Amino acid sequence: MSRDLRPPVDILHYEIVQEQASALGRMGRTLEQALAHLREFDAAHESSESSSETPAAMQPARRKLVMEAGQALWMFVVQREATGLRDSRHIMRTYNVPAEVQRCMGLAPPTKLASK
Q1: Is 114 among the domain residues?
Q2: Using an 8 Å Cβ cutoff, are 34 and 69 in contact?
Q3: Exposed, middle or buried, 42 (CB in 10 Å: 0-12/13-18/19+)?
Q4: Does residue 22 lie within any of the structural domains?
Q5: Which of 94, 87, 92 is nearest to 105 (CA)?
Q6: What is the pLDDT along the chain (116 residues), one digit of tens a residue?
Q7: What is the residue range of 101's domain?
Q8: Residue 101 belongs to what H/E stretch?
Q9: How many Å is the Cα radius of gyration of the chain?
Q10: CB under 8 Å to 18, separation ≥6 — which residues?
Q11: 8 lies in some domain
Q12: What is the pTM of this model?
């Protein structure tokens, strides 16, 4: 029977680092997925519209996708910073994050006030 002779603090540190890496992976995949949905939306509506502008009827749906991507970006950046990775420029380049997504990073989604 083999016994781990490392101090409990080392074992705990190892498990914390594993969880941080796992969380970073999850957040990165969430960001990738949100950006992919936005790009798919843009590609689907670009072919049907001659100008680069999104049709007015589709703007709320697109805005929702931008906000979701901004939220995913915010969560990823915060998780990275919590692990000591402070430079987010690498994320913006690697994931090719659009400027509009960067601008809404960390914004809370608008809430609808209950009418009285």
Answers
A1: no
A2: yes
A3: middle
A4: no
A5: 92
A6: 567 677 777 888 889 989 999 999 999 999 999 999 999 999 998 765 444 566 788 899 999 999 999 999 999 999 999 888 899 999 999 999 999 999 999 887 666 655 44
A7: 32-48+56-105
A8: helix 99-103
A9: 20
A10: none
A11: no
A12: 0.78
